[in-house]
Design goal:
mainly alpha; two-stranded antiparallel ribbon; 13 helices; globular; binds Phenylacetyl coenzyme A
Length: 318
Amino acid sequence: MKTTLDEQELEQIFQQRIDNEQKIEPKDWMPEAYRKNLLRQISQHAHSEVIGMQPERNFLTRAPSLRRKAVLLSKIQDEGGHGLYLYSAAETLGTPRSELIEALQSGAAKYASIFNYPTQTWGDVGAIGWLVDGAAIVNQVSLQRTSYGPYARGMIRICKEESFHQRQGYEIMIALAQGSEAQKQMAQDSLNRFYWPSLMMFGPHDSESAHSARSMKWKIKRETNDDLRQKFIDQTVPQIMFLGLEHPDKEIRWNEQRQHYDHGEIDWDEFNAVINGNGHCNRQRMEHHLRAHEEGTWVRDAMTAYKEKQRKREVQVA
Ligand code: FAQ
């Protein structure tokens, strides 16, 4: 009599659990391709949160009031925290954080394209909170139902914080849009520059998306790139109207039949250039990350030495 299950049977049971909406936990059996794909997505998500601190950090010393500075500081710290939850979730899949960071620094792993755009004005800080965090929430609300337990639980907490980030950004935009003519112009300019890159955050069209089909089958992703992008486009139109700004997409039209907005096309050449390392700030972002990592070596060394000392003490006591 056969006592162990073969790979195919294990995969069938695994898929059945996914189909029944059961979460997969770190010690459960999973196909290697599921582990690899999940590790890729979660670690890239973590890298995005960490690199994503850089554009806003640029304005910490230039925030227009103490209140704005305190709020921005707290928001940026939240993003760092999200990176840490996500690295922890990724590590449950068996790869240490140091390897994940190495992959980021060598260029083997990606991070969200949006963070390679420069922040030029205070309006950009508003646009990032409103549009970039807004797009991140649309994606992450969906990921709260992802099939991998640690990722799904991390997303629930992250979404709560992202909501606050989105509101702080929109509040900045309201203040600018209701301010002087120059402030309104600043808001419009930031909207114009950040709108299209925000749409790119959802990734290539479904027909071009290398990972979507498998990720949907395994419920790593719960909605496709294009469906999430459409949700974001639809929710952003009334927000732009409320601000009294012009929509950057001249082709935006309500489609009664689809009950969605029709829209213009993203510049995919720009998207590909940015994800392949040729955006405005790719080099600068990585140089900063490498420098900060290098400067933090003594902290990591001190932690390792402290842990070792504790371990030796425990051995002596035992
Ligand atoms: N940028 O087959 P797909 C945030 C890559 S968090 C760069 O469709 P997938 C919070 C993709 O990795 C923002 N690369 O891939 C915050 C793949 O390359 P690979 C991050 C992109 O994974 C706010 C290739 O193209 N959020 O912002 C992008 O099924 C403010 C083929 O694409 C997440 O990561 C892109 N935009 O779908 C922080 C959410 N799009 O790996 C600070 C979780 C695609 O084969 C301040 N991730 N690529 O070399 C996801 O939902 C998915 O990974 C997608 C892409 C939807 C991003």
